[in-house]
Design a protein that fits this description.
The complex is a heterotrimer of chains A (about 250), B (about 600) and C (about 130). With about 250 residues, chain A is α+β, with helices and mostly antiparallel strands. Chain A has helices at about 40-50, 110-120, 140-145, 155-160, 165, 175-185, 190-200, 215, 225-245, and strands spanning about 5-15, 25-30, 70, 75, 90-95, 100-105, 105. Chain C is mainly alpha-helical and about 130 residues long. A two-stranded antiparallel sheet of chain C has the order 1-2. The longest helix of chain C is centred in the N-terminal third of the chain and has 31 residues, at about 20-50. The chains are: A alpha+beta (about 250), B alpha/beta (about 600), C mainly alpha (about 130). Chains in contact: A-B, A-C, B-C. Chains B and C meet through loops of B and loops of C.
């Protein structure tokens, strides 16, 4: 295949902690074909032009959540964003906003993972059931209530989109709150009350000001803005119910 | 060097690794589990599996049927006792996942829904839309957070096993974020690092599927079994090789060539109608479908696309509603990567490498011949897939044998004393030195990308869907040459923090070792069986000489030694793999035979 | 001590970097003018309490050219405020399923805008009716 390829300029924000005081831009000329993604452009750079460029990637099909980056200032998955849509302009690729840069396009994800672990992201069963008794019954309508929110691939684009998270990293954030809602809304789960403590906290839903950009950028249609904002009502109701309920009463 | 003491160390946090970790934690919460993964667990390639996971549920289905489908699908190269255990535990594991929150697709009455899948006589494939692996992996990862005894080492790259006193006593890992080494002591080690599809050019696999654990076990004398059996998945996007799930065909999708003909009827899988029909046409086993494509391509009946030859997977007749409900991810992928909307146009597809049937030799308890070393999942060869894997058996395997590995490793760890710290640390130091040599070497002459591409191209040529002695020999020679050239590989990046070039160089070493095992195993199997098909005079199955497993033994300098091991045949004697009308006739004959016996 | 040295980028000027954020800031800013108008109306109520001549004087002041210009700006502000309010409203509501189909956000937004329009026209006719 020797057709003359078009060449696009990919400008990448570099940062090597052992060499650089601060990040800087480096531009590469990358030959590309119609179906090439930005990720494939980065792989070309690493293979052929500059082996020191570091970035996360794996599945190439927008399901593992590794390759998130700011592409022309918008949080996107590199494997799912195509060079043809930017040509003949240059493409600017930077690490996800609101996260510390560890190296080149790699950001520190510890905060996100820590938050995910805090919300009890697992089923605490409403009623016991042995394996021999088979599956809990769940109607398609009940499944519908959780399916969208369980589609989160943990790509963190919503955190890069959320200015409240950028201004105050204590905010639990859109993706994790969507996962929290997924468990609260699961017909099989019984831990809603415990999770509400996190929802009701300052760093829970009340840090959200309904900017809505998180849902705009989500590649899987999870709609975290909806998960967070519908829980503001739930949180308010919860507050008043707890005011009225005598202290020490059961769940 | 950092040091961590664990009871059980698990390398790989995909479906099998996570399931094993949970099993250890449940068996004995006082045991410390070190769960080591070079990526965050939810990035593991289990996440990309789509179609479903098998488990017998229907009243008219049975373990015997699942057993028969699996053993015949594997062209009788399966360890039948392992298959027996497997089919008997699939359903229980799928129910366990459901209890842990896995959002299985449901029937109207609230029970889990199941669908038809290739090579299976009766529907038994549980599914979660067309993202089953994704949902299973996230369920397992999120559930694992419940157990405080599981200590995760996220983004730690395992660069060596610690083998001293004739047993495996831990691993050495590089913290990717710092470039620093951590020695993880363990009384038992479970390898769950997945397959090795990245040795081939076109594949469905993610970048991380590089055979790390296979290579490590292999280098320490554990045989790699049945490596020549590489599964090509018949429906992948041309160019990228991205997977288009078998579930498309389970829902009724058809495959046509350039002339609009459902060509599979010409390859013993017909007749074409009625459709859908289990174990016929597009629901035949994967190896037969890929072989049919190869013949169609040879005969010039495939469709030329910008990314190569393809056939058409036509889903239009399923209708928009069903497509968006059952196969949403497929619709999205076809649109994004090829600009094709499956509601209105067929999807171009072709075979690409998908799964590694073979792997680290283990017994029915997932124990390798090296004491203290276990393996589960795609990296292992426990013998349930034989020469060809049926779709939806792999996701189930992760859970069934992930659990066994965890239980067995826990048992071993409880009954084993800690090893000699001094010898262990000395071993770790030497391993660290070897890893550092790669990056400290000044001015190597070979580039990683060049070696990798030459390997991938050669493997595609020599170990493709159809093979012959000449091409396989050429590939063996090429891999031998690449291994020599690898000694001079250049790592230009000398940094410590996130030095991914260094890790790619180590991975290339793993890839080359396993590629060599694949190529030599293939060359030496002088028959055609399952996914290993030859056109050079050895085009039939030869049970007399080759009803046995290939075993590749690592040699320090030079090609692997290939010898053979017996196959455990209990109930099912080798027969003809018959699908379509021939399969139905064979079934009628069998029933007739049984009736006469009564 | 490892060689890690994470770098945190500053948030200064964050909202200027993306048209979505600029629109968000405008949306939030409309609340300021809502408060401004509420103050105007509050003045009207106070003047009403002070008697007919005070109230008439207040009404007259509203007819000045500056006041008219200000009210046109306020009207535009309120229209955008209302529109953006109903745009975001579906996000605050849980999933509603009617006869097996999910209620689409666009339907909720349209219903809200329609209700606002009907109420506005209704109120206008009412006040015109009282005035005549």
């Amino acid at each position: 295949m020797n057709e003359t390829r078009k060449v696009i300029a990919i400008e990448v924000l570099r940062y090597r902690p052992e060499l650089d005081n601060k990040p800087f831009f480096q531009t590469y000329q990358v030959p590309f074909t119609e179906e090439m993604s930005v990720l494939q452009g980065l792989l070309y750079i690493k293979d052929e032009l500059d082996s020191t460029l570091s970035f996360r990637w794996s599945c190439r099909m927008a399901i593992c959540g590794s390759c998130g980056a700011m592409i022309d200032g918008v949080p996107k998955l590199g494997c799912h964003t195509f060079l043809r849509d930017y040509y003949p302009n240059k493409v600017r690729v930077e690490p996800l906003a609101h996260f510390p840069i560890e190296r080149d396009l790699v950001v520190g994800a510890d905060d996100f993972i820590g938050k995910l672990e805090r919300i009890k992201p697992y089923i605490v069963p409403k009623e016991p059931r042995t394996l021999a008794e088979g599956e809990y019954l769940q109607t398609p309508a009940q499944l519908e209530r959780i399916l969208q929110f369980s589609s989160c691939i943990n790509c963190m684009l919503c955190y890069a989109a959320c200015p409240q998270y950028g201004l105050d990293p204590a905010f639990i954030g859109p993706g994790v709150l969507a996962l929290l809602h997924r468990y609260n809304a699961d017909s099989r789960d019984a831990a809603r009350a415990e999770r509400m403590e996190l929802v009701n906290a300052e760093e829970g839903v009340w840090s959200c000001t309904a900017v809505g950009y998180c849902s705009e950028v989500c590649p899987k249609g999870v709609d975290p803005a909806n998960a967070v904002n519908q829980n503001k009502t739930t949180s308010a109701v919860d507050y008043f119910v707890n005011l009225v309920r005598p202290k020490g009463a059961g769940r | 060097m950092h040091v961590f003491k664990s009871d059980v160390a698990i390398v790989g946090a995909g479906g099998a690794g996570l399931r094993a970790a949970i099993a250890v934690a449940e068996a004995d919460p006082s045991l410390t589990v070190a769960l080591i993964s070079k990526v965050y667990p939810m990035r593991s390639h289990t996440v990309a599996a789509e179609g479903g996971s098998a488990g017998v549920v229907q009243a008219h289905d049975s373990l015997q049927h699942h057993f028969d489908d699996t053993v015949s699908g594997g062209d009788w190269l399966c360890e039948q006792d392992a298959v027996d255990y497997f089919v008997a535990h699939c359903t229980e594991e799928m129910v366990q996942l459901e209890h842990w929150g896995c959002p299985w697709s449901r029937k109207d009455d609230g029970h889990v829904d199941i669908r038809a899948f290739g090579g299976m006589k009766i529907e038994r494939t549980w599914f979660a839309a067309d993202k089953t692996g994704f949902h299973m992996l996230h369920t397992l990862f999120q559930t694992s957070i419940k157990y405080p005894s599981i200590k995760r080492f996220d983004e730690y790259f395992c660069c060596d096993l610690i083998v001293e006193d004739g047993r495996c006593q831990g691993v050495l890992a590089i913290g990717i974020g710092t470039g620093e080494f951590t020695l993880i002591h363990a009384k038992a080690v479970i390898i769950a690092t997945g397959g090795v599809g990245r040795v081939f050019r076109q594949n469905t696999n993610g970048g991380i599927v590089t055979g790390d654990g296979m290579a490590l076990a292999y280098r320490y004398g554990v045989p790699l079994r049945d490596m020549e059996f590489i599964q090509y998945h018949p429906t992948c996007l041309p160019g990228s090789g991205l997977l288009i799930t078998e579930a498309c065909r389970g829902e009724g999708g058809i495959m046509v060539n350039k002339d609009g003909r459902r060509y599979l009827q010409d390859y013993g899988l017909g007749p074409a109608d009625p459709w859908p029909r289990k174990k016929a046409m597009e629901l035949g086993p994967r190896d037969r479908l890929c072989q049919a494509f190869w013949h169609e391509e040879q005969s010039g009946r495939t469709i030329a696309t910008a990314q190569g030859q393809a056939v058409h997977l036509d889903l239009r007749h399923l209708g928009e509603k069903k497509l968006h409900e059952r196969l949403p991810q497929i619709c999205e992928m076809a649109e994004a990567f090829l600009g094709v909307d499956p509601v209105y146009a067929p999807i171009p597809v072709r075979p690409a490498v998908h799964y590694t049937m073979g792997g680290i030799q283990v017994d029915i308890k997932t124990a390798s011949p090296l004491p203290g070393l276990y393996a589960a999942g795609e990296c292992s060869s426990i013998g349930i897939h034989g020469a060809n894997r049926l779709g939806s058996n792999s996701l189930a395997e992760l859970c069934v044998f992930g659990k066994v590995a965890g239980s067995e490793a826990a048992r071993f760890a409880r009954s084993t004393a800690a090893g000699n710290s001094t010898t262990i640390e000395r071993h770790a130091d030497a391993a660290r030195q070897r890893a550092m040599n790669l990056v400290n070497r000044s001015k190597g002459s070979e580039r990683i990308a060049v070696l990798r591409n030459e390997m991938a191209l050669s493997m595609e040529r020599g170990c493709g869907i159809y093979r012959n002695g000449t091409d396989m020999q050429a590939t063996c020679d090429k891999i031998d040459e690449l291994k020599l050239r690898y000694r001079n590989v250049e790592v230009g990046d000398k940094s410590s923090v996130w030095n991914t070039e260094w890790l790619l160089a180590i991975e290339l070493g793993y890839l080359l070792d396993v590629a060599q095992a694949i190529a030599y195993s293939a060359l030496n199997r002088k028959e055609s069986r399952g996914a290993h098909q030859r056109l050079d005079g050895f085009d039939q199955r030869d049970d007399a000489n080759y009803l046995k497993h290939s075993l590749a033994h690592y040699a320090d300098a030079g090609p692997p030694r290939i010898d053979y091991g017996p196959v455990a045949i209990t109930r099912s004697q080798p027969g003809t793999r018959a699908y379509g009308a021939a399969g139905e006739q064979a079934e009628r004959d069998r029933k007739h035979g049984e009736a006469i016996d009564e | 001590m490892s060689a890690r040295r994470p770098y945190m980028r500053p948030m200064d000027g964050w909202w200027r970097r993306n048209p979505f954020f600029i629109r968000y800031m405008i949306r939030e800013a409309t609340a300021v003018l809502v408060v401004a108008y509420a103050t105007v109306l509050l003045f009207g109520v106070i003047r009403l309490a002070q008697g007919e001549s005070a109230y008439d004087a207040w009404l007259a002041s509203l007819r000045s050219p500056w006041s008219l210009a200000f009210h046109i700006v306020l009207l535009a502000n309120f229209v955008y405020h209302t529109w953006s309010w109903f745009q975001i409203m579906p996000k605050t509501m849980p999933m509603i399923v009617i006869r097996g189909k999910r209620l689409q956000p666009a339907v909720i937004t349209a219903a809200g805008l329609l209700a606002a329009a009907v109420a506005s026209v209704g109120l206008l006719l009412l006040t015109l009716g009282i005035g005549s």
